[in-house]
Amino acid sequence: MMFDWKKFADEQQAPAPSKEALLVRVREMLQSIYDPELPVNIYDLGLVYQLEATESGHINITMTLTTPNCPVAQTFPDTVREKLLCVPGVNGVDVTLVWDPPWGRDSMSEAAKLQLGML
């Protein structure tokens, strides 16, 4: 799924979205962020363990990476934070990177498995 930048620009002028609408926008943005080593977005890859929004537009995300030895482990949470701050209605983002439970192929969506030829 491609992030719709025109829709994004139009929404800059819109009133604050509901929590549910905000989470839809955040998921769309997460689906535009790709793992640095695999050609799959981080949401479908199953790297996002928890995603919450407050009424004030603050996003809390708990995520992992495919391996603790990932070359971008130190910088990737900031990359995710910066992208999510671009979503209309998002007023703050906390990204927590965890290693437990470890990521596994079972976390991937069917679409991601198909994209990687695992089905």
From TrEMBL:
InterPro entries associated with the record: Fe-S_Maturation_MIP18, FSCA_dom_sf, MIP18-like
MIP18 family-like domain location: 25-95
Any matching Pfam family: FeS_assembly_P
Protein name per Swiss-Prot or TrEMBL: FeS assembly SUF system protein
